[in-house]
Amino acid sequence: MAGAEQILHCVCGATRPAPVGMRTLSCPSCGRAMTPPADLPTPAPKRWLLAAATLVSQLLAIGLFTLALLWMIRHGDRSYLMVGFLVAGASGVFAGGSAHRGWTGALVGCAVLDLALSIACLSGAEHVKRFVAVPVVKLAPAFTRVDLAVAITGVVAAVAATACLLAIPQARRFAAWHDQRIEQAARRRG
Ligand SMILES: [Zn+2]
After folding, report:
1. CA of residue 3 to ligand 1 center, whole Å
2. What are the structural domain ranges in the chain?
């Protein structure tokens, strides 16, 4: 079929006709490579809830990690429990990063950690308050509202756990978009 044409598109919005079979041409207005519409990169899907949920989860995990570290280095508590909190805090930070890039499993992990922190903080248990109060009072003796701070952290963690679960569709869409982009890039190179 001589003379068959297709329309090539540029990311800047320009279009130009080209013979079928010609995969790329430079754009007349901006000079970037033009591609058939199927190869055009689609914009990244929105992930504001995912971003907010994973950020709050990471901050909570950093808090847990910091408190456990203070217990270990300043109060000499090197029990398995403190090591466990340290590992849980570090894992929470990494999980938050992976979840933000669309890994649903890590997002569920963030939700579980947030939920556990929420239950611990809202339980009113004395050993939870002590876990927070001892290092905090040593660092900031003027700070007397540890009870309130623990309660607020519990509420924030409950909201974060819920937000993580509600953000699962955004994570799935982002992961699908990301896979599609990798696939497109591979096709263009191939
Ligand atoms: Zn262009």
Report:
1. 24
2. 1-36, 48-173
Q: Which residue has the tokens 């990244």?
A: 44
Q: Given its phi and psi angles, is residue 102 left (phi above 0), alpha (psi -120 to 50 degrees) or beta?
A: left
pTM of the model: 0.78
How many CB atoms sit inside 10 A of residue 10's CB? 20
pLDDT (tens digit, 9 = 90+) per residue, 144-160? 899 999 999 999 999 99
174 C-alpha to ligand 1 centroid (Å): 26
Q: What's the 13 CA to ligand 1 centre distance in angstroms?
A: 6
Q: Which two tokens stand for residue 61?
A: 């995990």
In whole angstroms, what is the distance from residue 93 CA to residue 72 CA?
A: 19
